[in-house]
Amino acid sequence: MTEPATVRHLGVVHDRGPVDLPAARRAVADLLVALGKDPAAEHLLDTPRRVADAYAELLSPRDFRLTTFPNDETYDGLVVAKGIPVRSLCEHHLLPFHGVAHVGYLPGDRILGLSKLARVVELFARDLQVQERLTQQVADWLRDHLAPKGVGVVIEAEHLCMSLRGVQATGARTVTSALHGLLREDRGSRQEFFALTGIGA
Fold it and tell me: Which listed residue (131, 137, 156, 180) is catalytic?
């Protein structure tokens, strides 16, 4: 069946290699020994498999198809998806950070299937990350693949490497932003975006 000419699909496949599960299990067992634990103990016997599987899930984004549609009505207002869940792993400590992303764009010739905004966030979040890079990657990807008039991304997250260890600042949230096009260049558009996300100008 031929797809309607009004719908465009772009296949999205991540280019990261698969997790080597046997090697990961061996590494977890070695870590348990290094921490003074016996991986052969009854309660730890299946821990290497569980941990390896958990990291494989956290580091493997799902493939998806970016669906766009023609902007027939020439809609020129902001499209903002607020509160997209973000879960990722700090590449410095391998501890999670989690929070929400607010992603918006000013449409050009195409508009985006709304669920795909969350898919793009997940695409880059399922990796060893730092929040600053994650924020920029989402904004850059949307700019490059959607060609909008502007893109804005704000991520608010709590980092367990900061709340569980070190300074132990439980509840502290880090906020990062990345802007392109009119959302960076035009003060009014930028203020509207931050107002809609609840961040403030």
Answer: 131
**pTM, full prediction:** 0.88
Q: Tell me, what amino acid is at 2? A: T
Q: From the candidates 91, 132, 185, 191, give the one annotated as an active-site residue.
A: 91
Q: 121: which DSSP letter?
A: H
Answer yes or no: 93 catalytic: yes
Note whether 87 and 47 are same-domain residues: no
Domain extent, residue 52, equals: 21-58
Can you give the length of the chain in residues? 201
Please give the C-alpha separations between residue 23 and each of 9, 43, 65, 90, 93, in angstroms, as whole numbers: 36, 21, 31, 21, 19
CA angle (129 as vertex; 113, 103 as ends), nearest 5: 30
DSSP 17: P
Among residues 177, 178, 174, 134, which one has the least CA distance to residue 156?
Answer: 174
Could you read off the pLDDT of 131-174 as tens digits, one per residue? 999 999 999 999 999 999 999 999 999 999 888 888 888 888 99
Active site residue 91: yes
Q: Are residues 132 and 182 in the same domain?
A: yes
Residue 3 lies in a domain: no
Active site residue 9: no
